[in-house]
Task: inverse folding
């Protein structure tokens, strides 16, 4: 009976999936020397140099304190820096951070290839579906 409860519990199943995919992502991004989340933050900064810290939090769906910690870690590695402009904290990528862009892209590709090998086209469909479900559940809170 307990097995059925776990299989039908979105909380349990989502956390289980989170642990599995986190391990896969950590393995894929290990060669970059960054956590997957830190790498995704850098990817967002590549797209928009001078991005605000607030916008990073919105894009990554992270709390401001988590974004601050990630930025501090990346700044300590001299991969990015922030500049205060009035009330905004703007994030810029350093040359050293830019030098990691291709490696991070390769890590991203490796992760997607790994789960695509296992899930096939279902992987992208599942990802899109989970994104939409997350959006729906966030609106309730």
Result:
């Amino acid at each position: 009976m307990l097995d059925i409860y776990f299989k039908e519990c979105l909380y349990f199943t989502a956390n289980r999936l989170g642990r599995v995919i986190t391990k896969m992502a950590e393995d894929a991004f290990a060669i970059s020397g960054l956590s997957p989340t830190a790498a995704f933050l850098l990817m967002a900064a590549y797209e928009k140099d001078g991005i605000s810290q607030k916008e990073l939090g919105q894009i990554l769906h992270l709390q401001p304190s988590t974004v601050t910690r990630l930025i501090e870690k990346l700044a300590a590695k001299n991969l990015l820096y922030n500049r205060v402009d009035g009330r905004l904290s703007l994030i810029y990528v350093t040359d050293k951070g830019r030098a990691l862009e291709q490696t991070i892209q390769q890590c991203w590709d490796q992760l997607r290839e790994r789960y695509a090998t296992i899930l096939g086209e279902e992987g992208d469909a599942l990802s899109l579906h989970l994104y939409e479900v997350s959006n729906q559940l966030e609106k309730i809170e």
